[in-house]
Design brief:
membrane; 14 strands; Beta-1,4-mannosyl-glycoprotein 4-beta-N-acetylglucosaminyltransferase; Spore Coat Polysaccharide Biosynthesis Protein SpsA, Chain A; 16% strand; eight-stranded mixed sheet
């Protein structure tokens, strides 16, 4: 009997131990179940209040860089130009120069019309017109009291016309009132002004087979390029000019890919003034494009707010004068943008500031003849005035 009771007691103890073990396991399981939602909620809070805002801010600050860097994934490069080799030496006759290009030579040179839309680039305009003066028959300039972005501006050329008396006998100057439409795409106003310039060109007396230069003020064809084209027969009816592409001054040579400048053999009723690609033919090494080449910091600010790409001014501090001065001297980008290229190789190759160049060989003659006045455009002179 006692042995039976002892046996039953052991069974009871074993059952009790088993019961306790099961209860302990259940408690641990419930504890885990209670903790799991807490861990899940904590992760959601971190995602909501830390990761998501960080991602949004990153996209806001660097979205342009991301999209520009990934551009090769969704956009193919434009078809390549057909580069025409450019031959020139001052000691070679025009007849031989024309033959080197595969063209004949004329008995009488064509008339040349140089037409520009003017904003406020007084120094660059002077350099341009002195470079082209010996070869241009008529200078055509149109000025508006509105920027492309619809801001009111003075007629800068009219106020400073006295500086350009040397071209007065050949000058066809016109003005056009701005439309000042709020919220409009800047390219609409730009197109409107280019159409007005087209009318002024026709009113200037241009005729069939005259040469018409279509380029912005800061896209300067070299004089010998225009002389070549006016003397040679059989040149293309439309011809783009490949220009050396400078930024801020002739100290920062970006590349030789500036192509928008063009020369046309005029055809009444067909030729229209434009600033986009119009042919595949391009003449190599035909001049200089000096973008944002201003004397005063205030002129940088004005252009950043005035031209068609005003959307690139994403933050107000971009217009800070001390920042602009620092960017100029480093050869960096005013808008903190990545290079606008179509392959990863070209994008990576252009990352960072533009290297300094100390060559001032083959620059516009008037610039070098008046180096004291235009010193800020020459290598080693990046500091700007605050006028």
């Amino acid at each position: 009997m006692l042995e039976a009771l002892d046996y039953d007691s052991k069974k009871s103890d074993d059952a009790s131990d088993e019961y306790c073990t099961q209860v302990s396991r259940a408690i641990r399981t419930m504890s885990k179940l209670r903790c799991a939602p807490r861990d899940s909620n904590f992760g959601a809070v971190v995602l909501l209040f830390l990761v998501v805002p960080t991602f949004v801010v990153g996209i806001y600050l660097h979205g342009q860089k991301i999209t520009y860097f990934l551009r090769p994934l969704w956009e193919s490069p434009p078809r390549p130009f057909k580069d025409i080799p450019h031959y020139y030496d001052e000691n070679v006759s025009m007849e031989n120069l024309c033959k080197l290009h595969g063209w004949g030579v004329r008995d009488v040179p064509r008339r040349v019309f140089d037409a520009v839309l003017f904003s406020n680039e007084l120094d660059i305009l002077a350099i341009r017109w002195h470079e082209l003066y010996p070869y241009v028959s008529e200078f055509v300039l149109l000025e508006s009291n509105s920027t492309f972005t619809g801001l009111q501006k003075p007629f800068f050329f009219a106020e400073n016309r006295g500086q350009f008396e040397f071209v007065e006998p050949r000058l066809n100057y016109g003005t056009v009132g701005g439309r000042f439409v709020k919220g409009e795409n800047p390219f609409v106003e730009e197109s409107y002004q280019r159409v007005a310039l087209d009318h002024l060109i026709r009113a200037s007396g241009i005729g069939d087979d005259d040469l018409l230069i279509m380029s912005d003020v800061d896209e300067i064809p070299s004089g010998h390029t225009i002389n070549l084209l006016r003397w040679c027969d059989d040149i293309p009816e439309k011809l783009h000019l490949r220009l050396r592409n400078y930024l801020y001054s002739f100290e920062f040579l970006l590349d030789n890919k500036s192509w928008r400048a063009s020369v046309h053999r005029y055809r009444a009723g067909k030729t229209r003034y434009a600033h986009y690609r119009q042919t595949d033919d391009i003449l190599s090494d035909s001049g200089w494009h000096c973008s944002f080449c201003f004397r005063y910091i205030s002129e940088f600010v004005f252009k950043m707010k005035a031209y068609s790409h005003v959307d690139r001014v994403r933050f107000a501090y971009y217009l800070n004068p001390s920042r602009i001065q620092d960017v100029i001297c480093r050869g960096a980008d005013l808008y903190d943008m990545l290079p606008e290229e179509y392959t990863f190789k070209e994008i990576v190759g252009k990352l960072g500031p533009i290297p300094h160049t100390y060559s001032a060989v083959h620059l516009p003659a008037y610039l070098l003849q008046n180096f004291d006045k235009y010193k800020y455009l020459l290598p080693g002179n990046c500091k700007r005035e605050h006028g």
